[in-house]
Design a protein that fits this description.
Blueprint: H1 10-24, H2 28-37, H3 41-54, H4 60-72
Helix pairs in contact: 1-2
Length: about 70
């Protein structure tokens, strides 16, 4: 399950990270459910590549803000 690239935000990334961590904490049952939630690695890599490729060129200040947002996740 992937968030549409147009809807991707720091908040949605944080939500999915928290959900995956919660599900993983449920042991073996959680691991099985996590496998259903997470996309195949190759598909996820394509998704990320497309998202990054579509990003506008950022100023130094915008890059700094974006970097802090990503590091917080």
């Amino acid at each position: 399950m992937l968030v549409p690239a147009g809807s991707l935000s720091c908040e949605s990334v944080l939500y999915w990270r928290a959900l995956c961590e919660f599900v993983k904490s449920k042991g073996d049952d959680g691991e099985e459910m996590l496998e259903q939630l997470l996309p195949e690695p190759a598909l996820f890599a394509e998704y990320l590549y497309g998202y990054v490729k579509a990003l506008p060129v950022l100023s130094a200040n915008q890059r700094s803000i974006t970097t802090r947002c990503v590091q917080a996740v």
